[in-house]
Amino acid sequence: MTMLSRTAENLFWMGRYTERAENSIRLARITINRLNVIYGLNWEARPVYFTGDSYHHGDFFIGCVDTKKSRAEIAKAATKAHHCYWIDIGNRKADGQMIVGEAGSVFRNKRRADAQPRLPLVTELLPEIVEGPEDDNTPSCSAAQSILRQGVATNLMGATWAFAWLAEALRYGKIGWHGVFFNLESGRANPIPVDPERWTAMGYQPAKKTTPKRLKKAA
After folding, report:
1. Which of 38, 47, 70, 140 is deepest in the core (most CB within 10 A)?
2. Alpha helices in the chain (DSSP H)
3. What are the pLDDT digits (tens) for 53-96?
């Protein structure tokens, strides 16, 4: 049987992505099981097709995605939730970031919003992560090219920082940092403290609160 080269390539990548999805499901189930045992939780890992319109009931959204469209879908789901933490992990060849933000309808309550500062989302601290054209993430069947685009340990480092934040936050119920920038070439890691002044220095401007106008009574 003969097959067009483009068709063969599409089938190849379909198989690769299916294999990656199965591995991700397996790792998610293992991770959830370990967290349940350690912290006495009752979480459940379920494979579902995720979109911002169809799924917005989680307490934690943990994403490690490559496209701006995927991040935009997670942001949409997070803002529709009642209250959630969005843990975003992103990286390039030798550097990356892990940022935890808060979202949800609970922050529309003025009393709740004034109680403590809301952790800004990754899309608020780094708006370019969802704005503009997509980066070139064309898959390559060359292992050498894949490693050049993304270091072997970079993904692991991002996931480790995410797990460290989760472990500290769940154990103590509070934590003084909500993100980190790391660089494997220099061996440096710069945490993002829970500090509105630091957020302002990064260019984040919280939305201004608006007070509803009262209608004047007719004479």
Report:
1. 70
2. 5-39, 68-80, 110-115, 122-125, 143-149, 154-172, 196-201
3. 877 677 889 888 888 999 999 999 998 888 899 999 998 888 99
